[in-house]
Specification:
This protein is α+β, with helices and mostly antiparallel strands. The chain is built from ten helices and 13 strands. The structure holds cobalt (II) ion (CO) (3 copies).
């Protein structure tokens, strides 16, 4: 879609639309750059407060993925004023504001429009030193791939809409989605890593492909090391598969080689996530340091899921 935009010529734009990165980066001075991103979506859970909190954690995540610190945010909401009590919108905004507060981010305004289906998200502004931007496009051969949240969030939230997800599984997914990627980002900044992105709508393999394609490399993923929420397996078998996940799987045909991976696992590796974890490419010699920093920061899931195996055009091999 972005190819319909005119090419960016402003030299202060350090990261623009050409590498499918998480946020735009604009140099203000030799030691300060702005990081900007926007994300809006329809409810993924029934509770409006938690929908707001998850939407905020998700929007902030693109700033964390760039190695930047989020500071300011603007609310963007669509709401059916005639069909739902305004208190519901209030709860969504409260969830978003409290999550921003936890992140040290000030909500300085916003805009709501009448919309038949509720929508919420935020435009977020962060800051970073121009030399310390972490992009998704600089993974190198030999890098290990580290993931910081489990997969299966798309399947579980689709299961909520289909009334197939147990309350306990929904609770666990809400906890995972509402967790900020701040501690994970802090650990990768401390360690010094090659590249990073966050796992959202394109799923683990879709976002890994953005990374491998942009860097001109290929990767290998080991299914057995990928953390996946327990309840997601059963929900996949019951057909709780988001449309986005199916599109991801189709889009990766010809890119991914499945080495004896069954259909259910293929779906989960392509599952469209909301507010997923960071995917970090780190030189092998710094892997242990990154693990220690992530654990010290209290990041509960720290998984070494694969590696960058050599030059290529983004190809991904998935082994059992
Ligand atoms: Co992103
Ligand atoms: Co985004
Ligand atoms: Co306005």
């Amino acid at each position: 879609m972005l190819r319909h935009l005119p090419p960016i010529t402003d030299p202060a734009v350090l990261v623009g639309t050409d590498t499918a990165d998480d946020a735009g980066v604009y140099r203000l001075t030799s030691d300060l750059a702005l990081v900007q991103t926007v994300d809006v979506f329809t409810p993924v859970v029934d509770d409006p407060y938690w929908f707001g909190a998850i939407a905020a954690a998700n929007a902030l995540s693109d700033v964390y993925a760039m190695g930047a610190t989020p500071r300011l945010a603007l609310n963007i909401a669509g709401f059916p004023r005639k069909a739902l009590p305004l208190d519901v919108l209030g709860e969504i905004l409260r969830g978003g504001a409290e999550k921003c507060g936890e992140a040290g981010v000030t909500v300085i305004g916003g805009h709501t429009l009448d919309d038949p289906e509720p929508k919420y998200g935020l435009a977020v502004t962060g800051f970073v030193h121009p030399d310390r931007v972490i992009t998704n496009a600089t993974a190198r051969q030999g890098d290990r791939l580290v993931l910081t949240k489990p997969l299966g969030l798309g399947v579980i939230t689709t299961g909520i809409k289909q009334e197939q997800t147990s309350p306990a599984a929904a609770q666990e997914a809400i906890r995972v989605m509402a967790t900020l990627n701040r501690a994970a980002a802090q650990a990768m900044i401390e360690t010094g890593v090659s590249a990073a992105t966050d796992i959202t709508g394109f799923g683990l393999l879709g976002h890994l492909y953005e990374m491998t394609r942009a860097a001109g490399v290929r990767a290998r993923v080991r299914l057995r090391d990928v953390p996946i929420l327990e309840d997601a397996w059963d929900l996949v078998r019951r057909g709780a598969i988001p449309g986005g996940t199916q599109r991801n799987q189709a889009a990766l045909e010809g890119v991914v080689t499945w080495e004896g991976i069954d259909e259910d696992a293929q779906v989960l590796l392509c599952d469209a996530q909301t507010s997923g974890g960071l995917l970090i490419a780190v030189p092998e010699g710094r892997l242990e340091r990154l693990f220690r920093a992530l654990r010290a920061g209290g990041v509960p899931v720290v998984a070494d899921v694969g590696e960058i195996t050599g030059p290529g055009r983004g190809e991904i091999a998935v082994a059992g």
